[in-house]
Amino acid sequence: MNDRQTDHLHIEQRGLARVFYAISIAILIGFILYVARGILIPLVIAMFLSFLIVTLKTAIRRIPFLGKLLPEFIAYILSFAVIALILITLGQIITANATDIIRAGPDYQRRLQAILIDIGNFLESLPFVTDWIVSNVEAENTLSEDGTISREGYAALLTQFQQEVLGFISGIASEIGQAIRALAQNIVTILLYTSFMLIERGALLRKLGIVAGMQEAQLDIGQIINDIGDLVRQYISIKTLMGLTTATFSFIIMTLLGIDFAGFWALLIFALGYVPIIGAISGVMLPSILALVQPDGGGITLFLLTLGLLTVAEQTVSSVIEPRLMGRSLNLSPLIILLSLTVWGTLWGFAGMLLCVPITVSLMIVCSQFQDTRPIAVLLSDNGEISPIKRLVREEQAEGI
Questions:
Q1: Where are the transmembrane segments (predicted)?
Q2: In the predicted model, what is the mean pLDDT of residues 103-128?
């Protein structure tokens, strides 16, 4: 074997070693994220809350006359108090509505069973449905001696179908309920994390400057962190504002239509607004299904009205208003959204689904502000348009002056 072949073999071995190390590190990170999810989920939520509080503080400081008179720490306290009050109020609303939903559960279950029976009776009248059951279903006592469907067998199939539908709905409700309970139980921890993050915000820049060892490097690192923070705050603030707008429109629509628990569904629509694709579909379908099975005044007409109006409200905000405010530079590729939804949902459950897009967008923003990692940001983006490096933009503007 000559020297060229030996060098080529070494290059291949190094390439395989890098792939092996990358896969090993990815598996290790995934394992840590899964095992430490009880600690990391409140921490990540607190980080995003701190961004919201800083944004609110900035807005308070911009209030004419009053904002300039307020010391910065007072503006922080007011912002923190507003966010904390909102979270506590939301928790109380969810708790009150959850109690009412549990109390009304049997009525909705009876209504759903009646609807399923009507659907089953309608399907029974369709010849191709009975033919399919005869050909594909092998259930005990399903068929009569002449090969047709027996009444007992059909009733058994209908009961099984009802149980599967109710089990599916109960599973979704249980998953959402567990996530809400976990959030409520950790609310104090989240607020504590948030407060200490705000306290340590200024000290973090000084520590990074000490690590860098140079005043110029300290200023550069601090400015980069501020640039990243500005973009992340922009995304989270706009996404939260759009979620509140959608939830408000939905609440008005459901109240006018007489949908039960309109406040609870509006809060759920707001939370699901952070979940890509599935969140929008679930936020529209769940209240619509409730309208269908609602004991008082429910039915297909109310279902179609609720479905249509909620869809119009959601699409108006997400497809018309939000892109104009957000811009293309903060939009993710649909494939990346689905992958992040799958990965974070697997690791952190429903909480991971809520946080997957903010986390991925934050990662894209961080990568976009460093020359070496901009290709990663381009791959994560929707159409290759990413935020410019703010440091370079400032330098070009300074040279132009």
A1: 20-53, 73-94, 241-259, 265-293, 300-321, 341-366
A2: 70
pTM: 0.69
Asked if residue 12 is part of any domain, the answer here is: no
CA 16 to chain centre: 36
The confidence score (pLDDT) of residue 223 equals 66
Q: Please report, as a single letter, which amino acid is at residue 151.
A: R
Range with the poorest average pLDDT among 90-94, 189-193, 346-350, 371-375: 90-94
Both structure tokens of 316 = 């108006």
pLDDT tens track for 78-107: 888 888 888 778 777 777 777 777 777 777
Phi, psi of 149 (to 5 degrees): -80, 125
**Whether 57 contacts 201, CB under 8 Å:** no
Assigned domain for 3 exists = no
**Residue 254 pLDDT > 90, yes or no?**
yes
Question: Domain residues for 188?
Answer: 33-400
Q: Both tokens of residue 100? A: 């009412």
Q: Tell me the residue type at 353.
A: M
Q: Identify whether the C-beta of residue 386 lies closer than 8 Å to the C-beta of residue 368.
A: yes
Q: How would residue 390 be classed by pLDDT, with cut points 50, 70 and 90?
A: low
Query: How far is the C-alpha of 292 from the C-alpha of 97, rounded, in Å?
Result: 19
Distance CA(124)–CA(50), nearest Å, equals 57
Q: Find the farthest-apart pair of alpha carbons in the chain and give their distance in angstroms, rounded.
A: 94
Give mean pLDDT, residues 366-376. 81
Instruction: Provide the number of structural domains found in the chain.
Output: 1
* Nearest CA among 220, 192, 221, 189 for reference residue 204: 221
The CA-atom distances, in angstroms, between 140 and each of 72, 136, 143, 165, 322 are: 74, 13, 8, 21, 54
Contact 302, 253 (CB under 8 A): no
Is residue 229 within 8 Å of 47, Cβ to Cβ?
no
What SS3 class is residue 1? coil
In a domain, 14, yes or no: no
Which phi and psi (to 5°) does residue 145 adopt? -65, -30
Query: 160: closest CA among 146, 134, 140, 177?
Result: 140
Assess contact for 206 and 217: CB atoms under 8 A. no
